[in-house]
Structures are given as structure tokens and as C-alpha cells.
Write a structure and sequence with these properties.
2 domains, zinc ion binding, Jelly Rolls, mainly beta, 23 strands, about 325 residues, mannose-6-phosphate isomerase activity, single chain, globular, 6-stranded antiparallel beta sheet, RmlC-like_jellyroll
Amino acid sequence: MNPVLFQPIYKERVWGGRSLEDSLGRELPGGKVIGESWDLVDRPDDASLICGSEDERQTIRSLIESDPEGIMGKGWKAEDRFPILVKWLDCQQRLSLQVHPPASIAPSLGGEPKTENWFVADTQADAGLIVGLKDGVTRDEFEAALKEETLEDLVHRFPVEPGQSILVESGRLHAIDAGNLILEIQQNSDTTYRVFDWGRKGLDGNPRQLHVDESMKSIDFNDFEPSALPSFDEVGETVLADCAEFRIRRVNLEAGTKLSTGAPGAPILLHVVSGKLSDSPSGIGMKKGDTVLLPASRECAIQATESCTVLLTDRFTPAG
């Protein structure tokens, strides 16, 4: 089977904008502030459509159901959902201060755990990320600041630049600050608990819902001042994340060089951060912003038609 590309699903967000048009060459829905582009998702209420399929309504769900082991590898069941959700985030304003529940308590809260990785694809001036707490901040201090709406003094904010990456595990307090274009690779989950929203109102003019009780049960209060990985600019490969949920590698290729996956026996996701590539022998082209599924049953030889950077996501397990 050839590599599989998907049609993005756009989500309006109060903190979004229109920069995906210029950054990724996307055609966005008119008159909306688009914060998220869901480029690969397999959930009951959202399933990615496959580009170029003879059946215009074929989705990632129907593809897996038609050949679970060919797509996903030995032992995969047709009902097992694709375990990774891939998003591009256009953050024109600061996102809420939030947390995702750890696996140990998510069921008791009625949610799903979510570990995610942020790859910073582009930034505006003074862009930053908020991840974790300032060194030594206690739970009691956090609760007091939450009531006084002074949490900004206690959270860990640091500047970022294109090419940096950070793993945000379940339980880690976080917010993406304004001026970031982020490629987010995460567990297939849509559970987010907002603990604070900086006094902002939503698209409907009302304050957005907060989840303070759930957040306080989920936050790791021993997570102090984590740092992002630096950009890797040399030709070659480096590991950005290697956790129980997935592995992500960054690969920088010169024009004309090939990226061979071998016969992996499990699927690989290829995310094009910059440049262009082509699959041989199918001739399928891949450009900046594309997320491509390389099926488990097919050895793929991908050639860089110009110098490029890709991320490879693998070693993931069924989402259930």
C-alpha cells in the first residue's frame, strides 16, 4: 500500500488566527479564527478523510477496519483506534493554563490521559512557552495565587525559537504563549482541564469553562522548570521524545538523499516540517505541513527533492 495523506479538519479557537494560510499554504474556512488543524485523528466524532481515495468518504477508521494488520501491524484489531492525534496549532494569543490527567487518575475523573510533544515550527518576536512551575512553588502557594488571580508569578515561562521541542507529559502544567506555530503530536485523547484562563472570554463573549477541581487532582506539583530541547540543524537524526506512548525523531535531509524505513512491521508517521519529498515508486509528493502514514506492510523509500526536515513518530500502542 502507498503512503497515505489526509485532509485536515479545522477547529475555530478564540486564541487562533489565519497564519496557517501563509505558513503551510492552507485554504482555511472563511471568516473564522482557526487555532487548530487536526491533520490525523481517529475518534468517534472526528475521523480524518484520506486524500486521493477512490471513495471520497474513506477515513482512517475505514482504512484500518479494511486491513488492520496491513496498516497497523501484526495483532492489530479492526476496532483499535489509531493511537496518535496530530495537530498544527496557530497560537496568536496565549492558551489557557491547563493540564491533562495522568493515566492513574483519568478514569476516576471521566477523562483520558494525554501525553503530547510540541515541536516549535515558527515563532514571532518574544514567543515563549509556559511549562511546569517555578522552582520551589508549593501546592498551597498555587491555590492561593489561583484565588488571587496571580498565577503568572508562579508558572515557568521561557523563550523559544524555531526548531525547539518539549515533551508535555500527562500531569504537567502548561500553556502555549502567543506567537507560536506548533506541531503537536499526542496520544489520541481530547481531555484538557483548564485551571486558569487569564480572565479571557470565549468566542461567544462568555468566560470559558474552567476545571479547577480536576486540574488540582492532575497537576504534578513536583515538576519544576523543565527546559526545551535545542534545535538540531545538522544533517542526520536526533531523538526528540522517547516515552511509553510514542517515539519522535527529527531527521534533516539534503536534497537528493533518501529516507528508507525498511520493512518496519509497524506504522510510521512522517511529518514534513520543511522542504519537499517524494515516495518511490508511487511518486506521491509530500510538502511542508503534511502528515503521512507509512503502513506497516510496505517498505517505503522517501527521497528529499529539496533539503528538508521531517519528524518520524513510531512505537505507539493501541488507543482502545
